[in-house]
Each structure stands twice: as C-alpha cells, then as structure tokens.
# Entry
Amino acid sequence: MRGKILTGSGVHTLERRLFLKKSLSLGALTLLTGCDATDKGVLDQILWNMSHWNDRVQAALFDPNQLAPTYSESDITDPFPFNAFYSRSRVPVVKEEGYRLEIGGLAGNKQSWSLTDLRGLPQESQITRHICVEGWSAIGKWGGVRFSEFLARIDADTTAKYVGFKCADGYFSSVDMATALHPQTILALTFRDETLPAEYGFPMKLRVPTKLGFKNPKHIMSLFVTNTYPGGYWENQGYNWFSGS
Amino acid sequence: MWLLTVNLLLYFVVGALSGHFRKAFLPVGPRSVLRDMGLALRFRLPHVTGTYNAVQRASYIFVLAAIVVVILSGFAVWKPVQLQTLAALMGGYEGARLVHFFAMAAIVGFVVVHLALVILVPKTLLPMITGRHAETKGVGQHAR
# Structure
C-alpha cells in the first residue's frame, strides 16, 4: 500500500519535472494545441539556435570558387514554374518608364539605376538549376549583370556582412557578402534571352544558383549594403537564413 | 540530420573498437540467412539471447547501410553545389532525392518489420530498448 502511494507521487514528480523543464515533446504538444506562449517560446528558441548554427556551418562549407553545375539549352524546364507567396494574377506590375533601382547603405555611389543603365553594363547568362525549398527544382536561363561587378560600380563596402533587397511585392530578403560576390550571382534582367517577364520578376531578379529559390528575390526596387542583419520575408518566419545549396 | 550523423559515427567507432561488429555481425552469408529465414517463418528459429541469428545480422547490416546512404544522399540534397561530386555519384540533385527517398523507405521498412515482430512477441520490447536480456518467462523481469 505504502509502496503504491510512493510510486504514485513519484510519477507526479516526474511529470512536474518534465513539465517544468519544458521538454521538446511538451513544447511540440503546446504547438499542436496552440496555447501557452511560454512553452512555445522555449521550443522556438531551440529551433532558432539550431538554424543559426546551420547558418554558420553553411558559411564555412561555402566555397567562393565552387560553381553551380550548368546545363544546356535543351535541359531548360518548359514551362518554367511560377512561384510566389501569392497567385499569378497578383504579380506586381512595374512600369519600365520611371523605374530606378535605388541603392542604399554602405555604398560610395548611391545614384539610382534605370534599366537602360543596367543593360549598358557587361551582360552574361547562365543555365542553372533553381532549387525550391518546397522540394521541386527547375532549370532556367537567366541573363544580366554579374553582381560582384555591380557592387564594384556602386563602390560597395564588400567587407560588410550583408546585401539586402526590397521588392515591389513587399517581399524582402538578404544574402551574405561571400555569396553576393560569387561569380554566378547575377542581377538578372532576362529570362531565356527575353526581357524578364513579370511573372519571373520584372524588372529584375537576383539570380543566385548557390542558394535556394526563395533567396532569389524578384521585382527588386532597392538594395542596400549593411552590417545589420536584414532578415527576410520567409527567413523571419523561420526559414533558414543562409539556405545555401 | 546532425543527431543521426553523430549518433551513427559514435556507434561505428564504438562498434569497431569493441569488436562488437566482428562478433555480432560476422559471419553472415546468403545460405545462413535463407536457412534462418526459413526457420523463422516456421516459428522454429531458436532464439539465443545476446546472439544475432543470420537474418538479424543481415538486416542490421542492411539498415546500417541504408542509414549511411540516407545521410550521404541527404548531404547531397542539402548541398548540391558545394558537394556536387557526391550528388553527381547519385545522378545529380534529382537523382540524390530519389536515393534519399528509397533509403528512407528502406529504414521505414526495417522499422515496420521490427514493430510487427514486437507485436508478435511483446516481451522483446523492453530488452530492445534497454539492451538488457529479459528472462524467457515473466515480461519485463530482468535476469540477474
């Protein structure tokens, strides 16, 4: 009898301890029930720490000279998938007339750029695989200005940590400087040798074949160089920030 | 990913150094596997506590291989540019995804067979988790 009571209280102590420690499973449980903000906070913190650690591992793994595989014209995925956080009918309409790419942050030359200005710079193209965080991948051809060239033209401080982007659809994202300077990172103005269509990011998209698709912002209106972590639309909701491939 | 990798590496180091792999997994050949499989299906396989029969040896080697493949293909899918040589071995990014899927399916298959056997012989559950050998009679009572 006494033994039974002891066992009973032992179980209670264990349960309370588990609860107080806010173990992972309990945190997950509160996520499921959608209540108790404190438990959720602890679980979130663990996951964010893990994601930040993964950022550091990926930055260490990143080889600035390792090129993404390139493909031939016949490998291009047709039709290339449309993907955004809204439907195709809500793609932002940006008029070329009056468009200026604004430059901010740690750049010596902050003059804004028209599309004609950008088309006047040396152009290059690539056929690379776009890999989406959702799991699908597709091969496309993008052309435009090598981003490291562009950063040199605006006299950007390339010792800064981040380059951030703000887009016409309210999207925003940022990349590390090492990736920004990668030879295959381009400010894309064309898709399959035609002016970049609205659904793929007119007036321009940052094409980064060494990162997942959501790190390739479309409809870029302004960019800035900074040492302050700029985050991003999905990144702030928990997507891994570095997301290199 | 990191947990699985570190756990498996530790297991390999300890298993190799302690001689557990050599003692527990070898020898194993197709003939002994078929023989023990036949015995097991007729419920006549003698169970020697602490010693793996040939089917166990083969399936443990199989699942370890599947875990190695799942980790390698996982790295290839995670870093198809930085680790493109690894990805190329599996037919590129999409190929690595397929390899990853089938290796995952193999592990799930192994788990399903395990659970089915546990349901058939429930008393194996506790020693499976604790690693201690249960007495043949009396569920959950440990020898010694």
User: Anything to note?
Assistant: Helices of chain A lie at 2-21, 24-33, 37-61, 115-119, 147-153, 177-180. Chain A touches chain B at residues 58, 61-63, 66-69, 129, 131, 135, 137, 209-210, 244-245 (CB under 8 Å). The radius of gyration of chain A is 23 Å.
